[in-house]
Amino acid sequence: MNDQEILVRLKQGDENTLDLLYKQNYRMMIKLIVKNNGSEEEAKDIYQESLIVLWQKIRDPNFILTSKISTYLYSICLNLWRKELERKKRFSYEIKEEIDIIDMDRDERIKIINKCIQQLGETCRDVLTYYYFDRLSMVEIAEKMGFANSDTSKTKKYKCKKELDLLVKSLYKESDFLD
Q1: Could you report the per-residue pLDDT of 77-99, keeping only the tens digit for each?
Q2: DSSP string for 138-152
């Protein structure tokens, strides 16, 4: 079947011809996307989108094809892939920017918390540091601090955290922690 016959059948809405076109050009289109930093899955999606665009264009009565169908399909596929790459690049940049802001806020918050922890008594400072920063269990904290058991560690951590909260609230406003 030549391009002219394919065009006529597609204009008539012949989906079998669309399937044939899909199979004829599949390898070339997948190769195009994969060679240009795409996965096979992305290539399949883009190729299917390209066929839909082609299908819609051909069904338009004013449409005139000035090249081979495979060339036209290739250019649609390429343009859609370029748009997708641009979208991914923009999205990636936005995420990176957001992560940088979050990290900056996080670092600032950690500085504030550390500053306040340093103002607590030695026992509270040690318990909170062991728990939050060193990630020690209550049993390990009890052993290190010489407490009777892990329940004593839990109680001490609770009281120290409450003391830290009050200290932070007395030195900083809530807006210091919000955007």
Answers
A1: 999 998 888 887 776 665 555 55
A2: HHHHHHHHT-SSHHH
Query: What are the φ/ψ torsions at residue 135 (nearest 5 degrees)?
Result: 60, 40
Q: Is 77 exposed, middle or buried (0-12, 13-18, 19+ CB in 10 A)?
A: buried
Sign (positive or negative) of CA dihedral 19, 23, 25, 28: positive
The rounded Cα 174 to chain-centroid distance in angstroms is 29
**pLDDT tens sequence across 27-60:** 999 998 898 888 999 999 999 999 999 988 888 8
Beta-carbon neighbour count of residue 58 at 10 Å? 19
- Tell me the pTM: 0.51
Structure tokens at 121: 């008594």
Q: Which domains does the chain have, with CATH numbers?
A: 3-92 (1.10.1740.10), 119-177 (1.10.10)
Give dist(CA 141, CA 89) in Å, integer.
47
- In order of 9, 32, 105, the CA distances from 173 in angstroms are 71, 56, 15
- Among candidate residues 10, 42, 47, the one with its CA nearest the CA of residue 28: 47
Both tokens of 115, joined, read 């500053």
Structure tokens at 3: 């391009």
Distance CA 131, CA 122 (A): 14
**78: closest CA among 54, 57, 96?**
54
